[in-house]
Amino acid sequence: MLTVRGAELVWTGSAELPGGEVHVVDGRVAAAAPAGGAVLDASGCVVTPGLVNAHHHLLQSAFRTLPGTRGVPMREWLPTMAAAYAAVGIDPELAHAAAAVGLAEALLCGVTTVADHQLTWPAGDGVAIARAVAQAAAETGARLVFVRGSAREDPQQAAASAEAIAAAFSGTRVQVAVGPAGVHSDTPETFALLGEVAARHGLRRRTQANEQVDVEIAVERYGRRPLDLLDEWGWLAPDVTLAHLCGITAAELARVAAAGVSATHAPGCDLPMGWGIAPVAALADAGVAVGLGTSGGGSNDAGHLLADARLAMQVAPLVGRPVAAREVLGWATAGSAAGLGRPELGRLEPGCAGDLVCWDVTGVADAGVADPLAGLLWASPGRRPRHVVVGGRVVVRDGELATRPEGAVVATLRTLLRRRTRRA
Hints:
By secondary structure, the protein is of the alpha/beta class. It has 2 domains: about 100 residues, Urease, subunit C, domain 1 (Roll); about 290 residues, TIM Barrel, CATH 3.20.20.140. The protein has 14 helices and 19 strands.
């Protein structure tokens, strides 16, 4: 039981409460203060729902700023990343260490839920890899959505692995989804078989569409555009979320909206790499549920969703209309949660998950800011939150990770990479 008290402002996602409090009982937001519960001091803070990163590749937290991966065409980026994975070796030890870094970083950036689209797999059913990532989430205190992805895999093998992972996490806190990398890398059979696994287990489906290489290869290989293929293969539906959606036409946008598909914008990946800009304001105006994701460290290098939300706000007028800070914060919270099929996340209303962030607005960056909620994006998007709470548990306190020593998380990955690099 927890009461967050003394805030300058509480933004629930739908209302703004000056001087408001948030009460959490049994991991859920409650309407009234619990008797005898702990109190978390939020004086000088704006309190928001926990941010939801709807599209990450946690493994890439071990592969940031690699030579040959910055601002290059995706056709060059993909094999460079694949070579780096092969040189280090993908196994549960690396998956755990990389995920721990990525999830700790997420919490220290105000992100309480991360959807991890895992695309690179060693031999086997993949359960050990998934469990290693889930262990990292349990240790750091973050919520995890584990997406059993695929990229140029044997379709039967990918489906069997997805089946095993879904069974392994049935009834646990970890949500499982399935997601081919895209039509540029996966066959119609892969989409079909993973779709069957999703239907059997009631899983969400996710994939990437209309980035640079996706469009090029779809036209070369099939003479069609990616969304034409996804529609034909049964992957334009309300249980599907499409990440990126750069280079989408007006007709394709209307098709996505009519199908009930949700979208995930990843500007911190697509813009610096030169892969395009999704027209997210137009998607939102058409009724598409829009969320935000950082994508992975191989293309973004950071997991700071608030900073990427600012970027989304800044570039939106280049592909449509200006967007307000509150709208973009909605994408980073409830919008992302909607794409995960998790309406209890991203809002601070009775019955919702007790996931929240206390953002200190007393510093020099916020001096003179007339609108402290908008100032979260405009004034200092790289800020570290004072406190982060997940399900009523304080996982970041006074700017420090409360669940694991941050230095130990860093040292584990650095030591592992040094050892394996020397060995290679």
